[in-house]
TrEMBL record:
GO biological process, one term: amino acid transport
Keyword field contains Signal: yes
Family assignment from sequence similarity: Belongs to the leucine-binding protein family.
Domain Leucine-binding protein: 26-371
Name the record gives this protein: ABC transporter substrate-binding protein
Pfam families named among the record's database cross-references: Peripla_BP_6
Organismal lineage: Bacteria, Pseudomonadati, Thermodesulfobacteriota, Desulfuromonadia, Geobacterales
Extent of the signal sequence: 1-23
Keywords: Amino-acid transport, Signal, Transport
InterPro entries in UniProt: BCAA_transport, Leu-bd, Leu_Ile_Val-bd, Peripla_BP_I
The keyword Transport appears for this protein: yes
Transmembrane segments: none
Source organism of this protein record: Oryzomonas rubra
Amino acid sequence: MKKLIAVCGVVCIGLLSATAVFAAGTIKIGGLFAVTGPAAFLGEPERNTAKMVVEEINKAGGVKGHKLELVVYDTSGDATKAVQLATKLIRDDHVAAIIGPSTTGESMAVIPVAEREKVPLISCSAGIKITEPVKKWVFKTAQNDTLAVGKIYEYLQRHKQSKVAILTVSDGFGASGREQLKAQAGKYGITIVSDDTYGPKDTDMTAQLTRIRGSRAQAIICWGTNPGPAVIAKNARQLGLKTPLFMSHGVSSKKFIELAGDAAEGIKLPSGKVIVADLLPGSDRQKGALTAFVKDYQKHYRAEGDHFGGHAWDAVMLLKNAIERGGDTRATIRDQLERTRGFAGIGGTFSYSAQDHAGLNNDAFVLVEVKKRHWSIVK
């Protein structure tokens, strides 16, 4: 009898996971966001945006007559906590899919859980290793750092600046960026004359910048997320460095300008189009979604919708579309995500395939520059 109960328990769990999408009349979506902690500038707009989009979908009647239910947990940017909460979302909350986490390190930690439990995961992080090589159950909405590096190097190549210093944060995002900066240098005729790092909690990088000053670098590329890059911008100004300073897409929001203040002036970086949505031509395929998102976010939160919130917008809408096209279990949602073609979202125009779970190309980025505390498009 005990053996029969045990076997039945396993079967029941399997059946639950297969039909959980429409259980109890609602479709549960899990969210893992770093709402507090150092990465809160990522997680807070992601959480806010996911809530906003789910509310709007439900007001419009839900998806195929079913309301969405968003179950969000705050990871605080901690990879161990993210794994624990991902497991909770799957086994206790019975979610159909998970959006997040906010950072590359957390995403890499959670991937084995999603793969083992066979639950679609749409990461909001940028690291290329999240989806390369392809993992069956893992997708992402944040633009790859490969594309970001290419956008900077294309600019430097056009302006005949071939000697570069790189300064990268010693975490998952920084390590991935550093790897791409080094891997793509030769393709663009770039020589890395200085290669240095800084810690995520470091509050002064004058020592690294002083070393860079003696390196003959024609440009400095900093790869990290707030607040470190803002500290570097201030330190560079304090040292009187005139070398052009480039940042990664990890700081493409007004928060960076607020943190860096006047030291942000003239800094260039690759970004999704949302922070310059009003400057885009009417012919841009993304403009409609971008301007609607910016207005909705302003209405809901009295703040500007940004690049990071856009990752969550894309994730929710990609899931909605997958369910509408026939995704009624975790497995069929995964299959329909992989069949997504030409979805014009916030981060770019997504086309996933069995070989590509990142789904974006070079058009996803524009190069932007800070001018008088506002973003402008670099021509």
